[in-house]
Design a protein that fits this description.
This protein has 114 residues and is mostly beta strands. The chain contains no helices and eleven strands. A hairpin with a 6-residue loop joins strand 5 and strand 6.
């Protein structure tokens, strides 16, 4: 059974940092590209970042370039997202998952507020 569990969200002041984790199970993690999405209140889900199966290729939405870093540890079946210089507009529920597998986690809340 494919499963994703996000963690690491919380409340942080503008300019602060958080590191999200995504623990995967139920499939061969190293064979699949992965994604982080986010959904803010009243808005559609937005693709934030992608990473290839081996981790050598990444992409980001323009609004987070230079601030967010996606990475993965295939030995630990875990994906990460380091988020620096957070802004109030980054406030959202962050989800991880695989488009190919069509499966996503339950999300972790990130709130950026002074």
């Amino acid at each position: 059974q494919v499963q994703f569990v996000e963690s690491g969200g919380g409340v942080v002041q503008p300019g602060g940092s958080l590191r999200l984790s995504c623990a995967a199970s139920g499939f061969t993690f190293s064979n699949y590209g992965m994604r982080w999405y986010r959904q803010a209140p009243g808005k559609e889900r937005e693709l934030v970042a992608t990473i290839s199966s081996g981790g050598g290729s990444t992409s980001y939405v323009d609004s987070v370039k230079g601030r967010f870093t996606i990475s993965r540890d295939n030995a630990k079946n875990t994906m990460y997202q380091q988020m620096n210089n957070l802004k109030p507009e980054d406030t959202a529920v962050y989800y991880c998952g695989s488009l190919t597998l069509g499966s996503w986690g339950q999300g972790t809340q990130v709130t950026v507020s002074s």
